[in-house]
Amino acid sequence: MAFVKDMLRMWAHSWKRFISIAMITLLGVAVLTGIYAGCRDAFRSTDRFFDAQGLHDVQVLSTAGLSNGDIAALRKVNGVAKVQAERSQEVTFDLDGRKSATMQEIGTNGIDQPYLQEGRMPKKAGEIAVTRKFIRDSGKRIGSRLTVTPESASSDTSDTNDTNGADGTNETNGTDEAPSFPTKLTIVGVVLDPQNLSNPDGYSAMTSFRSTATTDYTFFAPSDGVTGTLYTSATLLVKGTAAESTFDESYENTVKQVTDRIDGTVKTDRQKARRQELLDAGNKKIADARAEADKKFADAQSQIDANRQQFNQQVDQIVSMQAGAAAAGAATNGANAGAAAAAGATTPQLDETTRETMRETIIAASPELTQAKQQLDQAQSQLNEQKASTEQTLKTKENELKTSIPQVRWYVQDRQSLGGFSALKSDLDSIQSLGNAFPIVFLLVAVMMSLTAMARMVEEDRSLIGTYVGLGYGRLAVASRYLLFALLACLIGGGLGLIAGFLGIPAFLLVVLQGMYVMPGLRLEYDWLYGSLGIALFVVGVLAATIYACVQEMRMTPAALMRPKAPRAGSRILLERIRPVWNRIGFLGKVTARNIFRFKSRLIMTVGGVAGCTALIVCGLAINDTVADLGIKQYRDIYQYDLMVVSDDSDASAMRTKVASDGRVTSSLDVRIESGDLAISGGGDGDSGKAGSSGSESIQLVAVPEKHLSDLGEMVTLQPVSSGMLGTSGVGKTGSLKLDDDGVIVAQSAASALGVKAGSKVRLTNGDGVRATAKVSAVNRNLIGSDVYVSETYYAKLFDSKDAKNTKNSKSSEDSEALTWNAMLAKLSGSDTSQTDYAESLEEDSSVMKAVSCAHMADSFKFDLMGAVVALIVALAGGLALVVLFTLANTNVSERVREMATLKVLGFFDREVHHYVNREMMILTVMGVILGLPLGRLVGGMLTMALNMPSLYFEVEVKPLSYVIAAVATMAFALLVQLFVNPVLDRIDPISSLKSVE
Description:
The protein is an alpha+beta fold. It contains 30 helices and 23 strands.
């Protein structure tokens, strides 16, 4: 009992150490669990939402649309739980200029169901539900009416090559029809598209850019009123995925098994079957056209023959009459009356030659007959020409049918292909990577501080430990006094850290996340396993340090423990050998220098602890500086143009005329911009070991006219980059990079995320969904957005000749359709404000789809999520620095109580004692700061390398002001700690402190 009382008394006396260990554990556990818990809560709530709305696991698209046979084949695939055939149509409408939208049929099989936020779901034909983004942009509300116009080539099925028959129709086949939706619409509800959770008022809405291949909005309509038997896509749910988290690797593996099965046999068979359907439909149309033409020609020939027969009869009558008259006249002149009478009673018989001669003479003598014969001959000639022309046309169609219908291509995609899903996953993964890195530093500092504190605590009780051991107490029992002390401090601090980690920090992060994404049903959850392991990690670390301190002392005999520890022997230091400096240092300065280097463990702990805290602050500020300069670097340094204007293909000429007529442009470059996709080619040589080197990246494909390839460098700064270490990259000379016809230039942001480098093979998808394998000629410095630059010739080689490889007879490059330059990069005159106003005015023009001012983008670019995380990290690092300095300062004082008492006996005033002690701490703090500043830059580079976000590359930069802030903050914490330590120095009693230990 006395042992327990003495232990409790010892604990109460060491309350400062208790608080220090508890605070360090609190901060460490909070950092370890807080960022993880915030991301985990977001992951779980999003996964529940996806399951509730039936977000598809797999989506199948086809360049020729999907038929009922395709849907039936997908239902038979092993592992598929549900298949939903979907119809959609692209439409346009007027909303401060021409806007586009996708009319999406609400599926009846429970897949990809929109989440109702306001109003009700549409049920009847003509009713639609819209997204909040449309409500915000249009100013409309529930009950408003809207009229849309279907685009002529809006659906995916429209670009399946037609089989134009003789009648000139343009249908895919004789039975399937493209989807068609009502055009007079009424808004009845506001919904959230499960495929895109972006907050329309958040960061993504401000910085995103819609190119020509992407519609501005999505309208959801019921099946009622939708016609057409051809489907634009098929969405699938995979068996067993509902029980797994969509963000886990196990989910991806389960889905991949199904996609591999589809890619294996179903895809190949149905592509061939679908193309054969198109060929059969084309042949049937040609056969029907030939039969119909033959019938028409036969009817026309019959009519001509009847008319000619009638004409011949009339001529023959005239011939007969003239022949009879001639015979009667001859008889009257040279025969008797009986002979004349006989001749008049019968028609004379004429041979065919004479009769034909008479016909021609009669026809020539009669203008009416001549005209009638010419009309008959002309009609026959025209009919013969039509028959020959039609037959030639049909034969040409038969010959061209196989080449006019390309190979049907299926695209099997999973959730990673959804831009909203991949962006959310990438954001959370990147933030979680920070949460996985920072606790390591906190744990190391906690172990160092615990070792320092507990070693001093055990050393202070040397004589007591020796007494207990001498009285027969076991070493384990004696060590339990300190182990339980450290354990209790860890448990209390860890418990408070769990509260902060699973409630405080997640609540803060989720507020920021909800500003970027809409996540219905978001709630805070506690993870017992992770929380327990978080505390256990720090308990093990602190207890290991405590055990080490106890073992170091208790390995001696009780007699040695009960004697006072011999003071550390003095030694010459390096500074003493530098005589010019040493001779000019005062006495107290020399004592301070010797004390600093005499206690090497204290030197290492103090400098290491302060350096770690300073490094964390610098690291946080480095991330903040890096993010803060992204907009300026991208839109003022990399992009040299001031304005990007994009139009629809049909309005490209009008757009260029409009911009030219305004007189604001000093120089410009016409380009083609499409939204596409970039992925590592199956046979590529990308660095697959690099994090994030799998998957795909949404890109902006920029095609440049062949005659103006050299002008690209005037609009965009072309600098080749190569991957460096610790967040750095080697940047080549400006202007040393040229676009040519041998490959594409990939933006650094996309290349970093996928592990692409110069010489890699990548899979490019253009705005029409056509895929091709391209060579990367260079990687260009780019921080925001994922631009891929390609020359006009290489673009045609990639996307025009690809079909040629899949067909025996393809059209020549001369017959391929020329690119439409639907965008313009321009330099403007005037101030930044006038350029921004001009871009806004252009967007009101009907021929302009999008106008982007680089000046506006540079000023308005923000990254709220990263800024919030950085603020959190800096705050926690500052708290850790304060606790570390407080722990070290109190340990320093407790180690040197007799020394301080001696100084007081020698006549030192309190202020002089303060200066004597604090000077050493300040010097050690300065040493730690000097070491921590470059260490922070190093850690910052390592962390930014782990941040793989869509369309963003973090080019690490630390401003001089950030170094100053980190140093000043650390020194300020050191001065603050002095305010707590000075009263302790004042309370040292020289008499009791200098009593003999014996």
